[in-house]
Each structure stands twice: as structure tokens, then as C-alpha cells.
Amino acid sequence: MHGVLRVKRNIVEYLKESAEKYPDKTAFLDERRKITFKELDDEAQKIAALIYARCGNIRNKPIAVYMEKSVECIVSFLGIAYSGNFYSPLDVHSPIERIHKIIDVLQPAAVIYHTEEPDELDDCREKISIQDIEKAEIDISIREKYKNTADIDPLYVLFTSGSTGQPKGVVISHRGVIDYTEWLYDTFSFDADTIFGNQAPFYFDNSILDIYSTLRNGACMVIIPETLFRFPKVLMDYINENSINTIFWVPSALIGLANSGILDKIHADKLQRVLFCGEVMPNKQLNIWRKNYPDILYANLYGPTEITDVCSYYIVNREFQDEEPLPIGIACRNTEILVLNDNNELVGENELGELCVRGTCLSMGYYGDQEKTSKAFVQNPLNSKYCDTIYRTGDLVKYNAYGELVYVSRKDFQIKHQGHRIELGEIEAAAGSLEGVNQACAVYDNCNKKIVLFCTLSAELTEKMIYRLLQDKLPQYMLPKKIKILSALPLNINGKIDRVTLKSNCM
Ligand code: AMP
User: Fold this and answer.
1) What pLDDT does residue 52 have?
2) How far is CA 380 from CA 278, 357, 376, 424, 440, in A?
3) Cα(309) to centroid of ligand 1, in Å?
4) pTM score, whole prediction
5) pLDDT of 200-255, one tens digit each?
6) Centroid of ligand 1 to alpha carbon of 84 (angstroms)
7) Which residues does ligand 1 sit against, CB inside 6 Å?
8) Cα gap 201→226, rounded to integer Å
9) Which end of the chain is more exposed for a tag (fewer CB within 10 A), N or C?
10) Between vectors from CA 289 to CA 284 and to CA 292, what angle results, nearest 5°?
């Protein structure tokens, strides 16, 4: 019996229901430990109790989670949600300068860390060790707190690369995640037998699908050790050994396996669904997957962090030539996609326009940055009668003859490199801030998939020296593959840096 459909307001309700239905079933596992739904519920409540003990009666405040990807991160996220606050996962491998920038914006009420107290987070008011869970007690008065929240309260803030060098904190509500998770359930039929093989880092929005679908459906999420992605055979063996049947990865990871030739050699017995999102998935490599594993469901999901992970999808249902683009499909339920041309009119077939989104999925903007928020989240130009916000993605798309959306390119200079979203401006800002560097311009060599940095200097610096200095400022994946020192940067007729000329000088 289906019973009365009760609309959820807080993701803690997913956890509570699964803990009741499947108390002893493994919910999440990493290399070191497993956790059942009941244990997860208990530990999350203890985290909530620790937050109250240390921070007092706070609500709707940010709490940073600063630890390696692990089961403990999930415990922390849920503990924070239990306490009526919202989490922000920080990348422990990011240079400290970037972490400080994020902390400056976020001003977290507390930071939850793993074993060693992070000296680098001295500015944070409260530091809570996850180990303190052992001493903590469940507090009955706290465990009901989440019930007093509204579904528009934030669940998390994820920081993406900002074009001014300042990372932007995207605020997402419980409502956005619940709406998304319910749609995923109806579309992909996840259930208690689903075993997700998680690839996405927790500071990247693709992880939202794995985490919340696991909680909602009493499923299981296996955190795949990051190092395995470098070893195709070991990775495929791991998928089989852990009976992983569903993956939602960035295309780069799928492309890596396809190019390695491993798909010919190892059969993935249990794999049922291969979903992907985050960048273009080339049909060339998808066809290798489809040839080797023809019975799997493949789906191309599309969306930026600002719209709760995904706003359009295409379930692969026909053959494609290697060189054809794979559509990003149609809008998800309860979501409208407007493709607007430069005059803010809806485009016709084959006309290029910017993909704009309206719906429950929309973020509540950038944390602490009204100015950037009002640039990206704007009044729907097709409606002047009431407040109707759309998010302008900056992605250029068109409709094909099937009425499906096809992704074409970025409007600005944001790129996707090794699955990471990077604004070239952030690299330029970092390089430009180095002593001895006058001007810096980063371009992306699409053919060879490399970031090239052009600099003009005011001091005696070598390419190697610049690279080493940048290592302290940028995460590994943002570092330029090549640095070229020029006497002056070329300018176009408007007097702006001529990126087109620079791009043709990448070699
Ligand atoms: P992020 O906020 O990190 O998820 O990055 C969002 C950006 O990634 C989008 O604005 C697109 O430029 C790109 N992107 C996401 N999904 C796809 C897809 N399926 N195909 C092509 N580009 C994508």
C-alpha cells in the first residue's frame, strides 16, 4: 500500500524513515568503515548535540566540514541538518589561501574536522572534532529541532570557482534537494537494492544525487577511493566486488575507462545505470561503453550547482555517430528551461541562445554576495507582472530536430577541465597577484585539453618559478599545463585582451 503521500520538508526525514525501515542495512561505506542507517541516525544526532553544546542555540548558520571524503563527512552533514543549520564542505587539498577566502565569506559558526585540529582554520570560532562523538550523548530536546525548520531553509553551501578570484558560495535549500531527489526516484527507479559507486567529491554538486538518493531509498553508497580512478582494471574489479549497480560520474572518468580498453576485457555484471553530468560526454567514448555493455541505461544529465545539480536530462534511446553531439535533453519535472537569444526572446529551432532556468531547483543565490546574486538570478524577461526569478547559466544551447536541447559552449570563460568547473579568471587573478607578474591571461586549449597561461613580467621570473608560486595559490587541477612569458599581451579592436589570438598561440 502506498499510503498518504507526505511531502517532506527536511532531508532529515529521509534519514529517519530509512533508519526505521532498514535499521541494520549498510547505508554508506568507505575504505575504513561502514555505517548502517540506524548508526547514522544516532551519530548524526550526537553531532547535533555537540553543535548545541559548543555553539549554543543557533539556527540557519553555516558550519564548515573540513575533512577527507569519508563516512564521517556524511555523519557531519546530517548532524548539521539535524541541528537546523547548513553545511559547507571544504576541500582539504585546496591551498590554504583559497580556504581562507572561503572562510572569510562563510564565517562559519563552527568547523567540524577529523583527527588533527587544523591550525590553518584558526579564524574559525569553534572547532569540533568528529572524534568527540564518542563522548557525546543524544539529546532528546535537540533531535526534534529540525521539525521547526522551513523547506526553504538552506541545506548546504557549495563553493564554485569565481571569475574575480573569489569563490562563490551557492546556497541550496532542503526544498531544492527534496524536489530533485523525488524526481530522480521517479525517473530512475532507485530502490533499496541500488548500490551507488560514488565518484564526485562532496564539495561538487554531483555528489548530491548519490547521497540523498541513498538516504531516500534506503540504498547504499560506496565511496570509491579516489586513487582507483587511475587504475582502470582495479576500478572495474572494485565495482564488481562491491556489486555497484549505479554510477553517476563526470564524463572524464567514463572517458578514461573507455580509452583504457578495459571495457572489452572485464564484464560489469551488476552495472545497470551509467549516469553522467558536469561536462560534455563525447559519443565516441559513450559508444565504446554502449558496444560493450548494451543493456545498461545511459543518461546525460545537465546542470550547474546553482540549480541543485541537474535541470535537464536525456536518457540515451537511439544510436549516435561518434562525432555527433549527445543531447542534454529536456527539462526535469517542475523545472522550466527558457533558451533566450541576445534580445531576451525565446529561440527557434537551431538558433543559439542562453539556457535559463526557473523552478524550485533554483539556489537562493551566492552566500554573502548580493551583487553577484542579482547578476545571475534575474527577473524572467518574459514576465513583467510578478516576481519570477530565472537563473542565467551562461551556457549556450540550441534545440535539435527532436526538440531536445543540445549544449554548445560557455558564454563566458568558464571551463570544465578534468571534470572540474574552473573560471579562467580565477587562475588569472592568482597569477596576476604574484609579485613580478604584470598581466596574466589564461586560455583553454580545447583540442589538447590544457590550460595555458600567458604573462607579462615586471621582474626576472622564469616559467618554473611562476608555476611553483601558483602551487601555493591554486588547487592542482587549476594549474596551467604551459606558461608563456610575453613582452605584451595582444589586444583586440576594443582594446581588450585578444583571447582568440592567444588561443591560437597555445602550442
Ligand atoms: P558545476 O556547477 O560545477 O556543476 O558546472 C556546471 C557547468 O558544467 C554547466 O554550466 C555546463 O557548462 C557544464 N555542464 C554540466 N553538465 C553538462 C553536460 N551534461 N554537458 C555539457 N556541459 C555540462
Assistant:
1) 93
2) 25, 9, 11, 28, 36
3) 9
4) 0.89
5) 999 999 999 999 999 999 999 999 999 999 899 999 999 999 999 999 999 888 98
6) 30
7) 160, 205, 277-280, 300-302, 304-305, 328, 393, 395, 407, 410, 416, 421
8) 9
9) N
10) 125
